[in-house]
């Protein structure tokens, strides 16, 4: 069938198909029954295309949060839920999961990626992909390959030796291709060993060669730098479209500089994707309905990691809870950048604990960041309305939005529109002087309750695409508001037509009595409470696509707040609302620390479940946490003269700590529950390791069984130990369980001289509660 369709296409039509036709769509060819194929950013929700991308979408926890569950079944169910969301939004392919490794804790998209380990990443990503595609929606694992930092990401040449490239960074992609057969894969912005990934030979071999990938390679958005080189290489679809650098591609083919056979192979792959998604014949999958709120709540709890606990948790019969910190009423559900979606609701910790019956008093204590924050879903009364206007102020188009923080590729703005008017009803939740304002480039006029509050003159947008997802420029003015009294807000925004992305909107900041006074108020609430819960963290301004971090320190006065609260209340629990490692200098001075990641739209409900003991914190760290940044094995993410050399080789994360003999704050795999466990035995039969565990506590619980491999007598440079397999098990109090853990051949081989090899001899397998603590051992002979 595909060959018959290909034979009906002339060269110009074939090139149009591989060039894209919009920000999120491919070209349609009605003559052969081909409709457009729609793609959308994930990976934690399905934002949709420009038709409905501002309408509400389910927001699941970040990649680091779901990976912390170590739960293959959960990732499969999340994939299926995303498929249902995709069908609801008219999307054929979800751009996810993000599979790059946590090479350095400074990586800006660390929160969006899964883990520091290739085996854990590959297994979880494969489950996610299967969940999507079994429901009829394509997955697009990204970013192939070594897109592990954001600094100079569109020009950097990452330099890796053969073993590092194949055993670490290609390994999870090989797993997902072999075990889940994704329908598409995204080629990254960066270069590897001398060539941009959209032009790189790694697309041909191993991806389309020895791995047998039969799907479509899609460029990252704007990652085509040389039209002829990309067309001759393994990138099949250039996005967004139409790709300007393909304007002369037909002439290049006719002149023999690009073989037409290369174009034909790309079109075959696109037609196969169309066949798989139902775009040939306009068919659409019908996945079963999913309770997305319940699943988001379950996933947030399953990935929460209890780092320390002196017995204060769970809070059974806790009495009065002082819930303080900037995240108490304004938890950050998501990181920044293209992964953003706009949830239908966001359950805050205050709302979640009160709904669960807790006696809560609250105060922020300090600000997460200076300036304005995004408007929360619970502060909007109904949807906002966006009216697109032409130069005469006449209406061009209108659409609804579940957010006042707007993001849109400029090419997708309705034709003729040069400005927009955003109209919404804002409901404050406390009395006092609020700061209401605007963010983004262009010219803004903000009217509140019929009175113009501010006018900001035109501000040019940044021209560097790498800066698009930073914090947009802001302006604000004060206005007195009363809790619960609605006000109409109108923002007239004449945007910058030369910008690649429209990014910004209406933003707010609540009443503030001053830094010292607010901190003192929170401390007094904590002093008088039975238990204090401090919610600290980062935000989308700190952890975002387009920028790497320069520090692991919590922003603002959050460390000071924790210390002050702990000094007046020995029963202080700290909840860390961050997608990546942060320094916790007070961790030994508080009663408990719970890592809660960027937890998605059901954040507060899941947090209440965990704190009050309705469910157990189910997570184990998917990445090692340093005591301080300087302890991390990799702290360099800034290229030198355009090159970033991966000089650490195989030794990232826990591998690097073990090699250096450095003890981190918390090891890869670490996490506590509400019961205790004993590791009693490890046996090996064939390629299966069986770990015997006993639940020695008084309640049922979950354990992540981790099996590590070591080759102490190896002639090769190897990690001290590395993850070889894992499984999730649940057991009742006193129950003994034997947990089989398959040890796959891929985790025991090494790369040498362009081929795979297995070193004969003894492999020491071991198991324990983290990469740093191994309690039982057994030998495996190769």
From TrEMBL:
Task: Output the superkingdom of the source species.
Answer: Bacteria
Q: Which UniProt keywords apply?
A: Hydrolase
Every Fibronectin type III-like domain range: 703-771
Gene3D superfamilies assigned to the protein according to its UniProt record, in alphabetical order: Galactose-binding domain-like, Glycoside hydrolase family 3 C-terminal domain, Glycoside hydrolase, family 3, N-terminal domain, Immunoglobulins
> What's a single GO BP term from this record?
carbohydrate metabolic process
Pfam families in UniProt: Fn3-like (PF14310), Glyco_hydro_3 (PF00933), Glyco_hydro_3_C (PF01915)
Hydrolase: is it a keyword of this entry? yes
Mind telling me which SUPFAM superfamilies this protein's record contains?
(Trans)glycosidases, Beta-D-glucan exohydrolase, C-terminal domain
Q: Which GO molecular-function terms appear in the entry?
A: hydrolase activity, hydrolyzing O-glycosyl compounds
Family under the similarity heading: Belongs to the glycosyl hydrolase 3 family.
The protein's name: Beta-glucosidase
The major lineage groups are:
Bacteria, Bacillati, Actinomycetota, Actinomycetes, Geodermatophilales
């Amino acid at each position: 069938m595909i060959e018959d369709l290909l034979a009906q296409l002339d060269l110009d039509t074939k090139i149009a198909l591989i060039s894209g036709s919009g920000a999120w769509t491919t070209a349609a060819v009605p003559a052969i029954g081909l409709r457009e194929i729609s793609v959308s950013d994930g990976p934690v929700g399905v934002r949709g295309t420009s038709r409905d991308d501002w309408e509400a979408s389910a927001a699941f926890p970040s990649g680091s949060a779901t990976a912390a569950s170590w739960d293959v079944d959960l990732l499969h169910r999340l994939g299926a839920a995303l498929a249902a969301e995709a069908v609801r939004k008219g999307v054929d392919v979800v751009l996810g999961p993000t599979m790059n490794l946590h090479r350095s804790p400074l990586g800006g998209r660390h929160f969006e990626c899964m883990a520091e380990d290739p085996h854990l990443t590959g297994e979880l990503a494969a489950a996610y992909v299967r969940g999507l595609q079994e429901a009829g929606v394509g997955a697009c694992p990204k970013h192939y390959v070594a897109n592990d930092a954001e600094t100079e990401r569109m020009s950097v040449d990452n330099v890796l030796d053969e073993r590092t490239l194949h055993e670490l960074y290609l390994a999870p992609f090989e797993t997902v291709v072999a075990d889940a057969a994704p329908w598409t894969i995204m080629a990254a912005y960066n270069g590897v060993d001398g060539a941009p990934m959209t032009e790189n030979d790694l697309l041909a071999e191993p991806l389309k060669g020895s791995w047998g990938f039969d799907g479509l390679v899609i460029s990252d958005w704007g990652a085509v730098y040389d039209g002829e080189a990309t067309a001759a290489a393994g990138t099949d679809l250039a996005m967004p479209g139409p790709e300007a650098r393909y304007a002369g591609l037909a002439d290049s083919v006719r002149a023999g500089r690009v073989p037409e056979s290369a174009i034909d192979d790309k079109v075959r792959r696109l037609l196969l994707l169309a066949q798989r998604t139902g775009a040939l014949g306009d068919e659409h999958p019908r996945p079963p309905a999913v309770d997305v709120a319940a699943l988001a709540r379950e996933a947030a709890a399953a990935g929460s990691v209890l780092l320390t606990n002196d017995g204060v948790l769970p809070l059974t019969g806790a009495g009065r809870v002082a819930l303080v910190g900037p995240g108490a009423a304004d938890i950050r559900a998501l990181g920044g950048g293209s992964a953003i979606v706009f949830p239908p609701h966001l359950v805050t910790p205050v709302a979640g604990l009160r709904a669960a019956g807790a006696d809560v008093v609250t105060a922020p204590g300090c600000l997460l960041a200076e300036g304005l924050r995004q408007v929360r879903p619970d502060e909007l009364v109904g949807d906002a309305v966006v009216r697109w206007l032409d130069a005469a102020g006449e209406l061009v188009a209108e659409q609804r939005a579940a957010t006042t923080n707007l993001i849109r590729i400029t090419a997708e703005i309705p034709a003729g529109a040069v400005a927009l008017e955003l109209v919404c009803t804002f409901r404050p939740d406390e009395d006092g002087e609020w700061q209401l304002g605007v963010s983004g480039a262009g010219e803004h006029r903000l009217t509140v309750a019929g009175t113009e509050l501010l006018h900001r003159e035109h501000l040019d947008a940044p021209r560097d695409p790498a800066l698009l997802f930073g914090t947009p420029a802001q302006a604000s003015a004060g206005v007195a508001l009363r809790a619960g009294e609605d006000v109409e807000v109108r923002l007239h925004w004449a945007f910058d037509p030369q910008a690649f992305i429209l990014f910004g909107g209406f933003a707010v900041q609540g009443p503030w009595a001053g830094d010292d006074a607010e901190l003192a108020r929170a401390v007094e609430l904590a002093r008088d409470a039975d238990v204090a819960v401090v919610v600290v963290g980062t935000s989308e301004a700190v952890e975002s696509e387009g920028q790497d971090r320069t520090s692991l320190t919590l922003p603002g006065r959050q460390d000071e707040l924790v210390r002050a609260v702990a000094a007046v209340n020995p029963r202080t629990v700290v909840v860390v609302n961050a997608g990546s490692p942060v320094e916790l200098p007070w961790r030994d001075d508080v009663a408990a620390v719970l890592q809660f990641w960027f937890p998605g739209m059901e954040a507060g409900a899941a947090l209440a479940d965990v704190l009050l003991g309705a469910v157990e914190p189910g997570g184990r760290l998917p990445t090692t946490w340093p005591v301080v940044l300087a302890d991390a094995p990799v702290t360099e993410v800034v290229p030198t003269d355009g090159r970033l050399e991966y000089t650490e080789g195989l030794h990232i994360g826990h591998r690097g700590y073990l090699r250096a003999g450095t003890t981190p704050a918390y090891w890869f795999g670490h996490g506590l529950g509400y019961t205790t466990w004993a590791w009693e035995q490890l046996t090996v039969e064939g390629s299966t390791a069986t770990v015997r565990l006993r639940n020695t506590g008084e309640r049922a619980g979950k354990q992540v069984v981790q099996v590590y491999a070591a080759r102490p007598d190896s002639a090769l440079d190897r990690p001290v130990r590395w993850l070889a397999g894992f499984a999730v098990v649940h057991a009742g109090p006193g129950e003994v369980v034997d947990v089989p853990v398959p040890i796959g051949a891929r985790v025991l081989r090494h790369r040498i001289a362009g081929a795979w090899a297995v070193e004969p001899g003894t492999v020491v397998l071991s198991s324990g509660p983290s990469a740093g603590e191994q309690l039982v051992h057994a030998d495996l002979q190769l």
